[in-house]
Amino acid sequence: MPMNQEQLRELEALCVQEEAPFCVAACPLHLDVRGFMKCCAAGKWHEARKILDRGLPFPEIISRFCDAPCRPACKRGGPLGGALNIGLLERFCLSQTKSAWKAPKLPARKGKIAILGGGLSAMVAAVELSRKGFSTCLFTARPSLGGRLLDAEPPPLAALEQAAATLVGYGLEIVAGQPLELAVFTEESPAFDAFYLDLEEFAEAAPTCGFGEPVALTLALSRPGWFAGGQAKDRRFPVIQQAEDGRRAAVSIERVLQNASLTAERAKEGGYRSRLYTDISHIQPSGPIIPANPDRYTAEEAQAEAQRCLQCQCLECVKECVFLRQFKEYPKTMARKIFNTETIVQGTRSANKMINSCSLCGQCATICPNRFPLAETCLAMRQEMVRNGHMPPSAHEFALDDMAFSHSDACRLARHQPGKTTSRFLFYPGCQLAGSSPWQTQAVYQFLGEKLTGGVGLMLDCCGAPARWAGQAELFQQSLKRLAAEIRALGAPELICACATCGKLFREFLPETKVTSLWQTLDELPETPLPPLQSSGLSRTFALHDPCAARHQPEMRGAVRSLCAKLGLTLEEHDCSGERADCCGYGGLMSCANPPLAEQAAAVKRRRQGDKSTHIVYCAMCRDSLAAHGPTGHLLEYLFPQNTDDPAARPNPGYSARHENRARLKTRLLRELWREDRPEETTMVLFVSEEIRAQLEARHILEEDVRRVLADAEGKNRYLKNEAGHRLAGLRLRRVTYWVEYQPEGQGFRIHNAYSHRMILPEEQQ
Amino acid sequence: MSGFSFIAEKGWRCAACDLALEPRPVQINYLHSVFTVELLTCPGCGFALVPEELATGKMLEVEQLLEDK
């Protein structure tokens, strides 16, 4: 089912990247401290001043008197060196700049407000309300504004004078120096619609006129339209709290005048604890900058102090994931884009590529403090796109065709061990190992047959992962159903999976089937039957990479390490192993939907281990993906070496070879193990240079498809020719038209070029 | 893509008809959209050539646009 708005909001709430930094949340006025520090660190004082002007009602006053409740929340605090000195930085910035931003005055609105008192809370309420267009009048018995600020030594006279000028500029009427009789206002008075009592001025006797205590959330008194704050009888009341009260009262008064809810959506007014997560485990301590003159920084000192700011944010998943980085998103923004794509009726579904590029590996959820299920979100969207016909055909077809081939009689096999009629175990190498390392697949199967009792059957097949990843839920279910039936037909033996993905999917979707990994099986064999490493010239120290599919299979990861120890191999681990393993770019069909990104993913995964010469993996796809970026061997190639060559030197065999290897493996096994006569297949000989081979791979053109184009062209004498003796033929296979430029050479054909398109020519209509 | 001409490719002859190719308007379609492009075509049997530059360039671009509609 498509996601609805409520589900989207629940999902979005899991991602904390947009939560306020700790300092900003702790600030009662929510000054953008992070942004301010960033500007200061870069010496952009004018920009920094703008942030102060936007965030603080009277910057000169607040920067002098604020007791900085943001500092205890600062992540730089404590062992990392100490919280930043926000007060000195603000004062330095103010000393260097003139006012850089002024809130615009809004058009006049209905409602007359009386502010009773002249302390800071009254001044803040007055500035907020008068600039919003309300007719506002401030009454104070004292000769000027400022309340207890005037008691400071020296009093901030210039700043208060400037504040008064600002207030008058917004249209505030100030009535000062006249005795203030509250009774005049508490009588039914049509002159005003709302009142704010600054308790600082009325600290003496019956300050709230008998209207009870102000409610913390709204500052409302028991009499409608009356609000009070700015002082408390029973506790210390900091200046910044006065400013917060003034702002809170202004919000309440605005809501009362608009007949809006007084209480809705106010949880984040005033200081609160942010839900943001920021990893500080790798941060080096850095102590505060002590100014030579204790009262003020120099520009260099101020800049150096601001540079200690950690610029707190989360982005834990983004730091590791190439996919999130490539699309410049974090889970919250991505979920929103996915949702928006889902609701497009007409127009371009611009997020399709993004949705199909996720490897679905789940690394982000493992890293996320709230386990944001991004892979599940992308997968659900793919399934929805398939259901409603919006899945771009080109996104996954190449992989689905490859899966269909693995599912075809050409590759598929399900047998008891030669000479046995029952199977206690069933070896399931998976399509990728069979394609990448057919020799080792056969060797390990024969080895298991010798070492395990009770019969070891063999099943060459594909677990259906490509269908699952492509969002083809129905196709995946069909595939599972068939696999389950074939496993049952063999007597429901225990599956020994060489591939972490197959094992993971079978455990999840065929819960009635007992599944173990090849690695656990090998590790648990009573004696150590492992052949010694072949050549003494080979390295015995390896950089190990776990596959992403082993993320939640700790037993398998443990068995691999134990096996390597038995082989005498020294393994080097890195941060992104185990549960945090990267995908090599094959998972989720990333390599099909977004080949350049998959290349990048493989490079990043391999780079986790730096430039160490030999990398070892135990997933066939990891092996081939990483081998494209440097020597990488599969553990099975060390356990069952085919020859004395360094297995890590073998290049990525590519799509075509993997495809053909699977079919050849079946034929060879039937011939060599089950002693069946298999007719020799005559394949058309192709001469393909390395350059052209790489081009075929990049263009997702299999040599098998090239052969079919040539067979058709030569059989029907239907091709173009040129003076160089080249021939050019095109043929539509499935949903793609392939063009091959070639030339007869000896007993075969020399391939000069190949390309494809999906558009249909008139002659291909049917 | 309609109105584009891809007749730059020279030198190909139809092997079966042994005729030089000539530019002809050809209707191609994908995902319910139809375009007319000028392609080199055999005047005898109608074999139309889609050159590499078209297949991997403009045509691919349009295919992807249509797939995201």
Characterise this structure.
The complex is a heterodimer of chains A (766) and B (69). With 766 residues, chain A is α/β, with parallel strands linked by helices. Chain A folds into five domains: 112-257, FAD/NAD(P)-binding domain (3-Layer(bba) Sandwich), CATH 3.50.50.60; 316-391, no CATH class; 395-524, no CATH class; 541-653, Rossmann fold (3-Layer(aba) Sandwich), CATH 3.40.50; 686-764. In chain A, the strands form four sheets. Chain A has a five-stranded parallel beta sheet, with helices on one face. A five-stranded mixed beta sheet of chain A has the order 6-8-7-9-10, sandwiched between helices. In chain A, helix 3 packs across helix 11 (299-306) and helix 24 (518-524) packs across helix 25. Chain A is elongated and about 115 Å long. Chain B has one domain (5-67): Roll (Ubiquitin-like (UB roll)), CATH 3.10.20. Helix content of chain B is 22%, strand content 35%. Chain B has two helices and five strands. Chain B has a three-stranded mixed beta sheet with strand order 1-5-4, with no helix packed on it. In chain B, strand 2 (13-14) and strand 3 form a beta hairpin. The chains are: A alpha/beta (766), B alpha+beta (69). At the A-B interface, helix 18, strand 16, strand 17 and strand 19 of A face strand 2, strand 4, helix 1 and helix 2 of B.
Tag the structure with descriptive keywords.
heterodimer, A: 766 residues, alpha/beta, FAD/NAD(P)-binding domain, 5 domains, five-stranded mixed beta sheet, 41% helix, B: 69 residues, alpha+beta, Ubiquitin-like (UB roll), two-stranded antiparallel ribbon, 5 strands, elongated
Uncertain runs of chain B are none
- For this structure, the quaternary state is heterodimer
The radius of gyration over CA of chain A amounts to 36 Å
The Cα radius of gyration of chain B reads 13 Å
Overall morphology of chain A = elongated
Give the strand content of chain A.
Answer: 5-15%
Count of domains of chain A: 5
What CATH architecture of chain B do you see?
Roll
Most extensive chain-chain interface: A-B, 35 and 33 residues
- Numbering strands along the chain, what is their spatial order in the largest sheet of chain B? 1-5-4
What portion of residues of chain A is helical?
40-55%
Low-confidence stretches of chain A at least 5 residues in length (pLDDT < 50)? none
Number of strands of chain A: 19
What sequence of helices (H) and strands (E) makes up the elements of chain B? EEEEEHH
